[in-house]
């Protein structure tokens, strides 16, 4: 996985500016084990005692998304989350209790299913989203 400094250098080489907000957002998303929301990033800025307004955060997220550096996700809570653009397609398991989000790698490829959809429905799948909702192991243990 690329480091934030490498990605920022690439952005700068394309003629775009550097900002502390962009670096902090990018570094946080890269280091996070789960997708982050605007609210997660705002808390991070507050903990670091960095004053960044809401518009700047959203503008930076949109810029990184337009550059295909991050990917936007949305789950059942209607909140937008962001993760570094994955090299391989993956899905997510979302805990309904603690809202933990984990990456899930499926053992079987969905290409055959997409080909079947095209054959049977004359519909070419360009992308898909598949999330699993339930209760994580930590929450199951806490209920016992």
Describe this structure in words.
The longest helix is centred in the middle third of the chain and has 13 residues. The model has no long low-confidence stretch (mean pLDDT 90). The protein contains 6 helices and 6 strands. The chain folds into 2 domains: 87 residues, Arc Repressor Mutant, subunit A; 57 residues, Dna Ligase, domain 1, CATH 3.30.1490. It has a 3-stranded antiparallel β-sheet. It is α+β, with helices and mostly antiparallel strands and 144 residues long. Strand 4 and strand 5 form a beta hairpin. Helix content is 44%, strand content 17%.
Can you lay out the helices and strands and say which pair or pack?
Elements: H1 4-13, H2 20-31, E1 36-37, H3 38-47, H4 54-66, E2 70-74, E3 80-84, E4 91-95, E5 101-104, H5 111-121, E6 131-134, H6 137-143
Helix pairs in contact: 2-4
Task: For the structure shown, list the relevant keywords.
144 residues; alpha+beta; Arc Repressor Mutant, subunit A; Dna Ligase, domain 1; 2 domains; three-stranded antiparallel beta sheet; three-stranded mixed beta sheet; globular
